Task: structure prediction
Amino acid sequence: MATILHIEPIAAKSALARLGLNEEALLEAAKHGYLARSNCTANHPPLYAPFVAWGETVRVLREQLTTIGWKRNDEKNYSRIIHPDGYFAIAVATGDEATGMASGFPCNKSVKGPSTIDAIEINRLQAWLPGMGPDELQNDPKEGQPMTWLLLVHHALNEIRSELSQPFDIGSNGRINGWRERILLRTIPLDFDPQEIIPPSQPDLDVAVRRKA
Result:
């Protein structure tokens, strides 16, 4: 199955709107994950930084979407947030260097377990329902199980790249190796270069000062 890829901002916006989402909510979650990771020091355990980044991304995503009716779900310790209609859910994962790049093939950095495998199986079953296209599939969940999308986030050296993508296949090594649909989000630049301050071009004003009579 060919991957449906949304690259241009207008196409991505339209695809997100179909899911009842906007890009800002997803980017805000990704940004908070990065900030949490940035606050870690060499004295933190090595596994803490990626864990806290993932946790804060989940938290902020949930805090934003629950205000518009989405519901938290931690069934089987698989943290997701589910659309008000129950048609689909979003989980958060750390992506590799290809995340957010149209020419690449992204993959999850950490090995996924049974919950992700089960979610992908639901995605596959619904995708193969005969005579149904992507839009119809979103409105006909099989046996009440939501289709799962991943907010895939990668912290590069100078930017944060992310995408909302629907996994379709996973290898025996726990790495996702097939995507049904990918929605690329805007990159968040991490530009800490000092900004040049340009002085005003207007001439200085001479103010006459006179002693009071």
